Amino acid sequence: FEGRQAKVEKIFLSIIEGDAYAVLQTSLQLLDLPWFVAHLADLLYHCGQLRYQSVEYREFFLLEYASPLITHSSLWQISLHYLSQCRARGKAHIQLLVDTHPLGSVREAHRLLSICDRYMLTESKKSIYNRLGFQAKSKGRLAEAIHWYASSNSSAVVSQLAKEILYRLFNRECSVADIGCLRLKPSWEKSKSKKICQSF
């Protein structure tokens, strides 16, 4: 209790002295509350209390809070709000989030694609399409893979996959119906070919 009281007294002393930077730095060092420091820095910035390098200070504390949220399974989308407020380095962090986020489902992928459109992350959007194409190809869904690779303008890969589909059709390793269901496989079971393909 005495240790906490001493920390609080040190912060109050900085407040009394009117040193906003010392308040932020002391709070960050002594308190394990990054959310508090981030919102305090934002509040002081908008109140005009951060005069020297105010933008840099505000961004630093916002990034200190938002960066750990990037890897959190349920809070990563919240980090986007804070990162988008950081003009200097926020976009780079958002791009890192998008590029490293796992594609657990197509719905998740579309959510990431929407983020790419919102923050104009052209290369990241292309990368997501390629990742989706690779996943589909590795599962034998060649027609679906063509759809994703075409979206990323990967013409060489699309051409290669189209040739593979034609080869399989020519050798009767699959049927046109199989292609429509996006379930191309080297050995196709009749029972599977009758199933309705999953939407993507």
Question: What is the strand and helix layout of this fold?
Answer:
Layout: H1 2-16, H2 20-30, H3 34-46, H4 54-66, H5 76-83, H6 90-100, H7 106-118, H8 122-138, H9 142-151, H10 155-170, H11 176-180, H12 190-193
Indicate the radius of gyration in whole angstroms. Answer: 26 Å
Reported for the largest beta sheet, the result is: none
Helix content range: 55-70%
Strand content: under 5%
Average pLDDT, all residues: 78
Count of helical regions: 12
Q: Termini, distance in Å?
A: 56 Å
Secondary structure: number of strands: 0
Category from helices, strands and their pairing: mainly alpha
- Uncertain residue ranges: 181-200
From the spread of the alpha carbons, the general shape counts as elongated
Structural commentary:
This protein is mostly helical. 68% of the residues lie in helices and 0% in strands. It contains twelve helices and no strands. The protein has helices at residues 2-16, 20-30, 34-46, 54-66, 76-83, 90-100, 106-118, 122-138, 142-151, 155-170, 176-180, 190-193. Helix 1 (2-16) packs antiparallel against helix 2, helix 2 (20-30) packs antiparallel against helix 3 and helix 8 (122-138) runs antiparallel to helix 9 (142-151). The longest helix has 17 residues, at 122-138. The protein starts with a helix and ends in a 7-residue tail after the last helix. Residues 181-200 have low confidence and may be disordered.
